[in-house]
Amino acid sequence: MIKQKNELIIIPQYFFPTYGGLQNFTYRLYRSLKKFYNGDITFIVPGPEEGRETVKQKLDGGIKIIRIGGKRKTFWKKATKLSKNLNIRKILIIGLEYETLIDDQLNLIKELSNFGKEIFLRIATSKDFFDVIYGREARLKKISNVKKIIAINPEIKKEINGCNKYNISCRYIPNLLDLQRFANDSQKKGLVFQKRLGVKEKEFIALWTGRLDPIKHLEDLIDIWNRSKIKGTLFIVGIDCYLGKKYLKKIKKLVENKNIQNIRFIGPFNEKDMPMIYKIADIFLFTSYREGFCNSILEACCSGMHIICYDVPGTRIVLKYYDPKYFTLIKLGNKKKFINKLRERYFIWQNNKKNEKPSLSSIKKYLSPETIATQYYETLFGKENE
């Protein structure tokens, strides 16, 4: 394989405190791309509002980060001007904005496309697209100049292709995760974490992990757990992220008002510690009402867990690659069936009935970092030269 010298700008939607302002996905994408890509990647990221106006830094070899501080409402206009001044043609935008900021973001897409830049737009859920774009002619026209939309589940692609009068090219590429990290960590390390978190010997542990956001609908999970009357503990492990603090207060208050004693809120954890969290749990529960491509479910799969979750596109597409003996998809909102399946798994656990380890062959084949990074490389730069 001959490495090509290509350069790329990536503009994520949010500022994250990790990796100099990069969210985990963009950092993982960079790390995976670098295996067969020798061009520099420049990230233009929104900085904290109290930060300096523009901060430039370098991380990890060819990664360059330009962090634009100041008010959020000025970010996309500044990013447009900055992108024009950089002699880099290809730009990957991660996610669509909401409310008033969407127009500034779409103006960036239109202006930079007219300036000769090639714009690629990654969309996480169809709701992101249709709530702010579809049916609004002026906005849809602005997005018509994108080189390609990258949809992270096939149902998003289907909806976009079915409703897009401008025939924008769209490709399905799943989320990217370092799968080996979750499969390799030893049980011994898991026991260390078990002690650290105060988990009792032979205690049944149910687990939820993810971003603390209202669309995750933890209200359902709390109600399901409370009504199941299981003798065990539910761990809710969240990361400190967009909308997190406000929603965390709300669900903690709900638990307090219901006087539920066997739910624990843990976190935030570093990403490197997450495999150990999965190791100490007996079952993974998830009640999100909307997902693009659910990393939490994929992590639970790679950890060999039993999974019960609501049947939505972003959970269904992940479990398509998993061993069917190890998961149950529940119709959205059917808490009664969810409770019954949870009690059933608890009974099996009580009687020490254990299945063999689930097969991960499909996950390794179709969802490996190398596979996903190759698809991004092909989309952004064309087929690799052999």
Could you characterize the architecture of this molecule?
The chain is elongated and about 65 Å long. Helices cover 40% and strands 19% of the residues. The chain folds into 2 domains: 8-176 and 367-381, Glycogen Phosphorylase B (Rossmann fold), CATH 3.40.50.2000; 179-364, Rossmann fold (3-Layer(aba) Sandwich). It has an 8-stranded mixed sheet with strand order 3-4-2-1-5-6-7-8, covered by helices on one side. The protein has a 6-stranded parallel sheet with strand order 11-10-9-12-13-14, sandwiched between helices. It is built from 16 helices and 14 strands. It is of the alpha/beta class and 386 residues long. The termini are close together.
Short description:
With 386 residues, the protein is an alpha/beta fold. The chain has 16 helices and 14 strands. The protein has helices at 24-33, 75-85, 101-114, 126-132, 137-143, 154-163, 179-184, 187-196, 218-228, 244-257, 274-279, 295-302, 313-319, 335-350, 361-366, 369-381, and strands spanning 8-12, 41-46, 54-59, 63-68, 90-94, 118-123, 148-151, 170-172, 204-211, 232-239, 263-266, 283-286, 307-310, 327-330.
